[in-house]
């Protein structure tokens, strides 16, 4: 892996503007949204709308908002999101949630509708991570998750033991078993065998904070 | 030294420029036999002989002047480093691999050999390169003045994985060095907790012991690195990966992907739990 350090420079170059922007926003006191339902996929919205489940929310992390070109609900400029959400993070009445049915039809109005889908009242472990994606990438490189996984943006991470983590932010099930939610993922990355005893992925030497950071980074992989 | 070199450089450049700009008649003297002999033979021989003498004088400290307090034999193998700590009589006190620990501030003699092709032993921050030549023994002595971790690298192309043939030289406070050395000389056996015994049994059952030694177990192979205390080393795969349970498992399961061409096969046949058990066992061998 050491031999690939020049790749690392290249990929850091590539991602820098994004993280710089995030940092800028943080510096201005604009935080990431805690939790949002905007990650719901189009078909989920359809189902939710048609069976009247407008108020049910899935706990998707910030990074999981699908991109518009795939027919999903909201534009996914990673850099733009904090602004959009920060501006609209106020508490939302449940009446607005019933607009989900609406979502189905008026996909193009989504930025407005979905802005209303944020929810700060979720149980702690289901909230969007307070992880720092950039620190997470550093942690991934440090413990070398890349010996087993291909991980975009991490130098030399081209392993073949486990699945590639490209577009992990869109994965529905972790290890094909568990719902891909922040709380689950944070635990998975540091202690997978406690969730799926048969897994080939060992307990990894990450502390709580690092695990959150790592999960935050994985959710940026779209 | 620098001034002398600069003067000679300017002289040569000056003469070259002259031969280019002067008309033919006025540069003819440069082609005279005496000038060629003086400038082309006498001058270089004199200067280089002086420099050789000076070189011996400067490096006298490296060649045996200091009496080493520790002697370490390092053998280059494709593509890792076999390391043996020698006792007073020259016998092997204990073996390890890919990591050399020394007491800071004390002169250490390195006895360099090769098992296959030419390698070169190099710790850039501490000393110059010295080749490891098959059938020949090269030695030199140096010390690491400050405690710290210094990276070393094979400096002579030795095949496909030459770039992944590195190591760490760890200079320790002399007191903690002695404790470390005593621990290294111990076998691994009785420090293995019950839940790790399963991993140890798998290690044996899967034939790892044909190539690796874990002192105190039936594993006595000699083809690959000694793993008796592998969990306590900074890296695996000769400086390729940091040591942790994940990298150990990844290495074992996909050796030929991580470092193609090494003599260890990928153990992709291991079932997930078994893979984790072996990795946990090796990680515990500190
Ligand atoms: Cu080499």
Give a brief description.
The complex is a heterodimer of chains A (222) and B (286). By secondary structure, chain A is mainly α.
Strand order of the largest sheet of chain A: 1-2
The helix content of chain A, as a percent range, equals 25-40%
Instruction: Return the domain count of chain A.
Output: 2
CA(first)-CA(last) distance of chain A? 24 Å
Main sheet overview of chain A: 2 strands, antiparallel
Q: How many extended strands of chain A? A: 2
Structural class computed from helices and strand pairing of chain A: mainly alpha
Number of helical segments of chain A?
Answer: 9
Principal-axis shape of chain B equals elongated
Gross geometry of chain A: globular
Q: Poorly predicted ranges of chain A (pLDDT <50, ≥5 residues)?
A: 1-127
Q: Structural class of the secondary structure composition of chain B? A: alpha+beta
- Percent helix among the residues of chain B? 25-40%
User: Using CB atoms under 8 Å apart, which protein chain pair has the greatest interface?
Assistant: A-B, 22 and 24 residues
List keywords for this structure.
heterodimer, A: 222 residues, mainly alpha, Immunoglobulin-like, 2 domains, two-stranded antiparallel sheet, 2 strands, 2% strand, globular, disordered N terminus, B: 286 residues, alpha+beta, 3 domains, 5-stranded mixed β-sheet, 3-stranded mixed β-sheet, 8 helices, 36% helix, 21% strand, elongated, binds copper (II) ion
């Amino acid at each position: 892996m050491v031999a690939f350090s020049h790749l690392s420079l290249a990929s850091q170059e590539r991602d820098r503007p994004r993280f710089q922007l995030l940092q800028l926003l943080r510096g201005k006191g604009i935080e990431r949204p805690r939790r949002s339902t905007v990650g719901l996929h189009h078909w989920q919205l359809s189902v939710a709308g048609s069976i009247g489940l407008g108020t049910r929310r899935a706990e998707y992390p910030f990074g999981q908002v699908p991109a518009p070109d795939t027919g999903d609900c909201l534009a996914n400029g990673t850099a733009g999101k904090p602004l959009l959400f920060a501006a609209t993070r106020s508490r939302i009445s449940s009446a607005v949630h019933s607009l989900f049915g609406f979502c189905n039809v008026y996909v193009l109005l989504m930025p407005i509708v979905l802005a209303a889908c944020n929810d700060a009242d979720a149980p702690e472990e289901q909230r969007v991570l307070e992880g720092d994606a950039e620190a997470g990438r550093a942690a991934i490189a440090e413990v070398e998750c890349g010996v087993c996984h291909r991980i975009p943006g991490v130098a030399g991470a081209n392993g073949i033991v486990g699945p590639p983590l490209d577009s992990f932010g869109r994965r529905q099930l972790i290890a094909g078993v568990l719902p891909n939610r922040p709380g689950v993922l944070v635990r998975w990355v540091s202690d997978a065998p406690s969730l799926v005893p048969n897994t080939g992925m060992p307990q990894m030497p990450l502390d709580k904070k690092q695990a959150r950071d790592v999960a935050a980074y994985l959710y940026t992989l779209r | 030294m620098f001034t002398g070199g600069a003067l000679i450089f300017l002289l040569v450049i000056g003469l070259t420029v002259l031969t280019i700009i002067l008309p033919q008649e006025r540069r003819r003297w440069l082609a005279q036999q005496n000038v060629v002999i003086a400038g082309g033979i006498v001058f270089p021989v004199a200067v280089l002989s002086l420099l050789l003498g000076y070189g011996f004088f400067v490096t006298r400290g490296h060649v045996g002047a200091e009496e080493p307090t520790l002697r370490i034999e390092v053998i280059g193998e494709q593509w890792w480093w076999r390391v043996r700590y020698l006792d007073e009589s020259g016998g092997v006190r204990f073996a390890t691999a890919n990591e050399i620990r020394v007491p800071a501030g004390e002169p250490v003699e390195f006895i360099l050999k090769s098992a296959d092709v030419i390698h070169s032993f190099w710790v850039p921050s501490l000393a110059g390169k010295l080749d490891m030549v098959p059938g020949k023994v090269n030695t030199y002595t140096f010390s690491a003045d400050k405690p710290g971790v210094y990276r070393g690298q094979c400096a002579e192309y030795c095949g496909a994985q030459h770039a992944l043939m590195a190591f760490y030289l760890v200079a320790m406070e002399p007191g903690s060095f002695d404790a470390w050395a005593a621990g290294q000389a111990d076998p691994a056996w009785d420090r293995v907790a019950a839940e790790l015994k399963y991993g140890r049994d798998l290690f044996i059952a899967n034939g790892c012991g044909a190539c690796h030694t874990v002192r105190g177990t039936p594993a006595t192979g000699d083809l690959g690195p000694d793993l008796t205390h592998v969990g306590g080393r900074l890296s695996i795969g000769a400086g390729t990966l940091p040591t942790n349970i994940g990298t150990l498992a990844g290495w074992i399961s996909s050796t030929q992907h991580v470092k193609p061409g090494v003599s260890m096969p990928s153990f992709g046949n291991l079932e997930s739990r078994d893979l984790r058990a072996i990795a946990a066992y090796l990680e515990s061998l500190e």
